Amino acid sequence: MRKMRSRYKPSKPMVMIAVCIFAVLALAGSTFAWFVATDARTNKLKGPPPGEFSVLLVDEFENTPDENGVYSKTVGADNTGSVDAFVRLMVVPTLVIENSEGPDTLWQ
Predict the structure, then answer these.
(1) What band does 26 get if pLDDT is binned at 50, 70 and 90?
(2) Rounded to an integer, what distance in angstroms lies between the CA atom of residue 76 and that of residue 84?
(3) Could you tell me which residues are beta bridge partners of residue 74?
(4) Which of 37, 50, 63, 79 is in the most buried spot, having the most CB atoms within 10 Å?
(5) Where are the beta strands (DSSP E) in 1-108?
């Protein structure tokens, strides 16, 4: 017995058109899904009422240098509220040299 073959064979341009249409539809669908997707969460963490949380920054600077030419500066934080507070401070050293044209920041 002879095996029957299908007489219809799609042409290359028709296959390319179908692939292009599928690609455009997939791109449009994924773009639409990206625009309509939402991630909403309810914040269950409650902070203290206003007025109970208060932090005062302390910055004491002496305008006269000591015998080594070092200026003294004290930086800190005081908790003036009625609840505990965590404060993070960071020191950023900067080298500034005064010249005839004005201050020049060399390193920060």
Answers:
(1) very high
(2) 16
(3) 60
(4) 79
(5) 55-61, 73-79, 95-99, 102-107
